[in-house]
Amino acid sequence: MTMSSLEIAELTGKQHTNVVRDIRKMLADLGDDSKLSHVHEEKDARGYTKAYHLDRELTQTLITGYSAPLRLKVIRRLNELEEGLGQKALDFAGPYQGAIIESLSGLQTEVKILKEMIRSIIAGPSVVRQVTELSLSPAIRTQPGVPTWVLLRSQGCSLAE
């Protein structure tokens, strides 16, 4: 778990350039500590520092020099991150649920068609032609909401499970 200098700046109300300055000073003061290898410096295309990513210990070391209310804000946010409350995850039960289910259904259909085509190749060329023609048929492609394998079955193609 890390916290970025951008988030520290936002939480404390400080300018990001000042937070970066404070981090550089802290790192210089700490010298050759083995923990410093865990500091990740993110650079932009020009090679300038875009953000620093600090672990919990270094974040707390940095904010020790800040006022008590600012330290409290950052520490609370660190606790949220550790508990997983602060992580932004996709809500699969929300507006994306239908699209995800539809996409998975489509992928499952494609896998079933590919399996049948492989079986057909093993069975012989006439069966391959039948499956290919059926899968490209306008009747198959123009029925939204109906899985392709159901449409293929309705056209006389047997899809082995």
From TrEMBL:
It comes from the Bacteria. Pfam families: Phage_pRha. This is Phage regulatory protein Rha.
